[in-house]
Design goal:
The structure is a homodimer. Chain A has one domain (3-192): Tetracycline Repressor, domain 2. Chain A is built from 9 helices and no strands. Chain A has helices spanning 3-22, 29-36, 40-46, 50-74, 79-91, 104-115, 117-143, 153-174, 177-192. In chain A, helix 4 runs parallel beside helix 7 (117-143), helix 7 packs across helix 8 and helix 8 packs antiparallel against helix 9 (177-192). The radius of gyration of chain A is 18 Å and the shape is elongated. Chains A and B meet through helix 6, helix 7, helix 8 and helix 9 of A and helix 6, helix 7, helix 8 and helix 9 of B. The structure holds a DNA duplex. Chains A, B: Residues 5-65 form the HTH tetR-type domain.
Chain lengths: 194, 194
DNA sequence: TTAATATTATACCGATTGGTATATTTATAA
DNA sequence: TTATAAATATACCAATCGGTATAATATTAA
């Protein structure tokens, strides 16, 4: 790994939390130089523009979430157990190395929908992939006779994602942490009732 | 209504859609002068600063949603019918005079949580009030023997709100309109199963 | 160790940011 | 109709925005 690659990664590491909290329009070059201790020249020697850092930062934040889920997932054998990981991860994300600022999907989706098409596409792809993974677990669980397939698996998966993301939004807006717990208990019930 | 009050309202009318689409950090004074056809001097003659316009714009957008729901609600007699209004309004919000840019609660919550405490508080209050209304309908429906009370009414209400807001987020991210329909059908089922 | 190269810092650019003092116009009450 | 007050426009402010040309400094291969 060359020096440049290392600083590129360093820049992303330090700026990703800022993009995830202040948003993409709300994060300035000055925020980035202060967080990294580097100068503008140094940042622009490694990235073409602010957008490119934003895109890389989203990827970094999202991969962090994926990694946590995958790690927790490996402990589980049953499909219900694997599905429950999603609810548990989001329920306990203060205890886990979750990206600062909350869920990058939620944060990015609402800001980028009209203003930043590339970012929006990344979020869209992430959601589609999440949905497809959930449907795959449903199929495997049904084939293993662990539970019976819901009538509309896509609908089931999308409802689960929507409820989780909505739970995070409720906490961001109200500051009431128990709101997340209550809603995620509903998600758990949804899984256990399969 | 004085001239000043009328222009104040005019400014909010014209800028509220911009705040709701581009966000509060993403909306500039120039955006506001272009949308209104007024000058900065005129805007600052009626508002102390950009923040004050943002706050008034949020109120305007939120009241618009409240008004739609209230109007649709009056047609309904049963509590189930009233609860279903929420799902139906969000399912058909292209056909209704819904604020441009989508749900102001969702849009504002994710941006304002770290950057704009006053705005965040407004969103928080709106959500709490929404939850309380839902719980009140549940109580009335249970008292009328229309259905039986869910075990945890707060949880039921918060789950419904989270799922609706999550559904909107999914559409913003993926652009797939049928995602909203699918998720809101789950919300409908949640109500019908009471 | 040296020369070539890659990386980072300095100093600057024009444009735009939110905001304001003042002049001009418009509404309003006498 | 006129005087007064209210509302709007003009012209400006310093600060910051994202971005860049160039100079200085490290890195790296020979």
């Amino acid at each position: 790994m060359s020096k440049a690659e290392r600083t590129r990664q360093y820049i992303v590491e330090k700026t990703a939390p800022i993009f995830n909290t202040k948003g993409y329009a709300g994060t300035s070059l000055t925020d980035m130089t202060e967080a990294t201790g580097l100068t503008k020249g140094s940042i622009y020697g490694n990235f073409a523009n602010k957008d490119e850092v934003a895109l890389a930062s989203f990827d970094y934040n999202h991969k962090k979430v994926i990694a946590i889920i995958q790690q927790e997932m490996e402990k589980e054998k049953t499909m219900k157990g694997k599905l429950l990981v999603y609810a548990n991860v989001y329920e306990n994300f203060m205890k886990l190395p979750f990206p600062k600022g909350g869920c990058p999907l939620l944060n990015t989706a609402t800001e980028a929908d009209d203003t930043h098409p590339q970012l929006r596409e990344k979020v869209g792809d992430a959601i589609t992939s999440w949905k497809n993974k959930l449907v795959a677990y449903l199929k495997e669980g049904a084939e293993n006779k662990e539970f019976k397939m819901p009538a509309n698996p896509d609908q089931w998966a999308l409802t689960m994602i929507a409820t989780i993301e909505g739970a995070i939004m409720l906490v961001q807006a109200t500051g009431k942490l128990n709101y997340r717990k209550l809603v995620l208990q509903s998600v758990e019930k949804m899984i256990l009732d399969l």
